[in-house]
Amino acid sequence: MSEYLLTQVINYGAPLLGLIVFIGGLGVPLPCTVLVIAAGAFARQGYLTWYSAAFISIVSVVVGDMLSYSIGYYASGYVTKRFSGTPQWLEAEKSFQRWGPLSIFFSRFLVTAIALPVNLLSGTTRFAPRKFFMYDLLGEIVWIFGYGGLGYLFGSQWEVVNEFLSNFGGLVLGVILLVVGGRQVINWQTKRQPVE
């Protein structure tokens, strides 16, 4: 699928790249990061105009993210009716109010696998829409210019850059899951110990 989309981006340019990252912002699993890196390489080779590709991509992905945020926002009534008041929900809300801005920003480019859940949780916990937009926009700018810039810088070697970044993102996600899991185990063990 990646090769087909890469060919189509060369054929149809920035509008198609924008459409793909928009759909990715809605949570559809497309190889968006690969396309952004490749788009940087294509811009270096003259197939794309870098500024139009960057502008269209940023606008498109932010609109997609805002729509998925809105889904969480408008579904919050159902979610809170079902889960509010539970210790898990209260903990999730508290954690998100504390770490929400960082999770929004870093999930745009560093740990993209959790971007959709972060968008939905942002909406469900009624995280301020303007703040979500600001952190989302900043993160997506880093994603487009950072990853696209690496593709532009490395040109024909963009596939090596993509492989490295994929492995690095997987490592970061693994470390986050390990830390969160370890914390949960410690909390669980602490609650199980009898009070003396």
Summarize this entry quickly.
Helix content is 82%, strand content 0%. With 196 residues, the chain is mostly helical.
Structure characterization notes:
It is a single chain. The protein has 196 residues and is mostly helical. The chain has one domain. It contains 9 helices and no strands. Helix 3 crosses helix 8 and helix 6 runs parallel beside helix 8. The longest helix is centred in the last third of the chain and has 35 residues. It is elongated and about 65 Å long.
- Secondary-structure-based class equals mainly alpha
Rounded Rg: 19 Å
What percent of residues adopt helix (DSSP H or I)? Answer: over 70%
Low-confidence stretches: none
The residue-averaged pLDDT reads: 82
Instruction: Outline the biggest β-sheet.
Output: none
Q: In total, how many beta strands?
A: 0
Number of helices: 9
The oligomeric state is single chain
